[in-house]
């Protein structure tokens, strides 16, 4: 059987992993089979490297990971930065002021480091799930440089409210919903599709030779850039509409079924 795609881009949460953050044997084996057939496997996630690289290692693979929703592309083998979209720190001040005023938890991220102003029990539990280990910073003394992502966390109702209010803000930075409980803010040009395009051009791979699988709004640009974009069965309707095909859900080993159906013949 021949492989139809040279590069396979995979979202992590809600796609590769079940909702309890487990990587099943069926998913791992199918991704490893695709790699053994010659496909370049690239994780494309909203996570930072500290949360993404362990998933790559669980798959028994190395190589490149697109992290922070495309804001930082990382070589997992030597922990080097291939490319990153830096934000202007002062552009984040209105977002930080808003979060302080409304009691919303947030973190700031460079390519490899996550920083928080304070820690709630809810946030601490969430970070453990995502294998993230933030450090406490005093942002009143100024913001660090090299920032690639700003993330807010809260219940769905609160994030719905924040999303609606931020939608009308000036587009110096872009905010995008990366999950029911998360909104990410990053450089206006940073997204998974743009990062995937950069990587594909470096490697000389045409979009028609790329398969991408994702489940949420931050995956749409990636699904649209790839020659074959597949939305998970657990995706919102808008994500499904942006894809070429819809797979089973992440609770049904949807990635494994999609790879068997579309990646080789």
Protein described:
- The protein is of the alpha/beta class and 265 residues long.
- It has 2 domains: 152 residues, Rossmann fold; 99 residues, Hypothetical Protein, Haloacid Dehalogenase-like Hydrolase, Chain: A, domain 2.
- The protein is built from 9 helices and 14 strands.
- The strands form 2 sheets. It has an 8-stranded mixed sheet with strand order 5-4-3-2-1-12-13-14, sandwiched between helices. A 6-stranded mixed sheet has the order 8-7-6-9-11-10, covered by helices on one side.
- Strand 12, helix 7 and strand 13 form a beta-alpha-beta unit.
- The longest helix has 12 residues.
Keywords:
265 residues; eight-stranded mixed beta sheet; Hypothetical Protein, Haloacid Dehalogenase-like Hydrolase, Chain: A, domain 2; Rossmann fold; 2 domains; six-stranded mixed beta sheet; alpha/beta
CATH architecture of the largest domain: 3-Layer(aba) Sandwich
Alpha carbon gap, first and last residue: 5 Å
Overall SS class: alpha/beta
Number of helical elements: 9
What value does the average pLDDT take? 95
Tell me the Rg in angstroms.
Answer: 18 Å
CATH superfamily of the largest domain: HAD superfamily/HAD-like
> Largest beta sheet, briefly?
8 strands, mixed
Low-confidence stretches: none
Shape: globular
Beta-strand share of residues: 15-25%
